[in-house]
Amino acid sequence: MAVSSHLSPGIVATAVGVPLQSGTTIVQLLVFALLLGGIYGLVALGLTMIFGVMDVINFAHGALMVLAMYIVWSLSSASGLTPLVFIPIAVVALFGVGILIHHFTIAPIMEAPQENQLIVTFGVMLILISSIEIAFSPNPRSYNIDLGSVGAAGVFIPEGQLYALVISITAVIGMWLFLQRTQLGRAIRGTADNRSGAKFVGINIKRIDYLTFGLGAALAGLAGAAIPLIQRFDPYIGDVYLINAFVIVVLGGLGSFPGALLGGMIIGFVQVFGQFYLPGSVYQVMIFMIFILVLLLRPEGLLGGKRT
User: Fold this and answer.
1) InterPro entries, per this entry (predicted)?
2) What is the pTM of this model?
3) Is residue 154 domain-resident?
């Protein structure tokens, strides 16, 4: 069983089915925190991508993650193949879904007040979740995949979380290379820095917005497709991760990819160590205390100003 927001402190200590020895407890918790932080960072990437370029807060982010979960689950169940094969398919599908959502809901109101965009993306979220619930029922599902753990020197690493961490790091590196080394990526960065200036030098802002929302949805799909590797899912699981994603994005700095990963790591470490050492849900209080402290001392976030 993997460490997640649903696990109690007692389960954290035996998350891979083997009680922790006192000499390895800290190292084991560090491993769990690193793995969980990578997952949270992956969840926040798509959210910060869309906001960093378009200044659109996408409330449908969690629902897009859930859609990817059910795409992978449906294809895997129908074919009998491992879910890992269908993760890229879900990412491509979510890119297309993102393009459609932007075309029919966001593009017509890009110049409207930001609260209009919030309401629209909230409506998209409700439509997606309701549609998934009607199509698949609210019953929890899980991937048909047998993942164990690997261990060395008394420290155990759940394979599902390890895969998710690798996916997260790969996504960050891949997007950084795309944004830094390609002409289209530089156009996206230019739009994020100054939309008016980018338009003045000939960048097609509308095209960049379509691409950005599609990429943000694809990253949401990547995160969503990876999460069932560590836990069961239902149509509503995206809400839990969406709340954490907003906290992470603000902590790391709005629009910053490295900031999203850093924010995810902070939340992961606080959650794992807090669940293990503190009673009840005190760790959640600590997370929001850190959140408030960062807002007071550094409102732009820890890596604010270093967009994408």
Assistant:
1) ABC_transp_permease (IPR001851), BCAA_transport_permease (IPR052157)
2) 0.86
3) no
Residue 255 lies in a domain: yes
CA distance 248 to 302: 10
pLDDT digits (tens, 9 = 90+) for 195-250: 888 888 888 999 999 999 999 999 999 999 999 988 899 999 998 888 888 889 88
Tell me, rounded to whole angstroms, the distance of Cα 308 from its chain centroid.
15
pLDDT, tens digit (0-9, with 9 covering 90-100), for 75-97? 999 999 999 999 999 999 999 99
Whether 214 is in a domain gets the answer yes
Q: What is the pLDDT of residue 7?
A: 39
Element (H, E) at 150: strand 149-152
Helix, strand, coil in percent for the chain, rounding step 5:
75, 5, 25
| Domain of 74, in residue numbers | 9-13+23-137+161-297
Inside any domain, residue 150: no
CA-based torsion, 11, 12, 18, 22: positive or negative? negative
CB atoms within 10 A of CB 264: 28
CB distance 86 to 75 below 8 Å: yes
- Angle, vertex CA 1, rays to CA 38 and CA 135, nearest 5: 85
Other Cβ atoms less than 10 A from the Cβ of 289: the count is 11
pLDDT in tens, 123-177: 999 999 999 999 999 999 999 888 878 777 677 888 888 888 888 888 888 888 8
Number of domains in the chain: 1
Lowest mean pLDDT, pick from 55-64, 150-159, 287-296: 150-159
Q: Kindly report the CATH number assigned to the domain that includes residue 108.
A: 1.10.3470
Whether 191 contacts 211, CB under 8 Å: no
161 phi and psi angles, rounded to 5 deg: -70, -35
- Indicate the range of 93-102, 191-200, 287-296 predicted with least confidence: 191-200
Under 8 Å between Cβ of 240 and 4: no
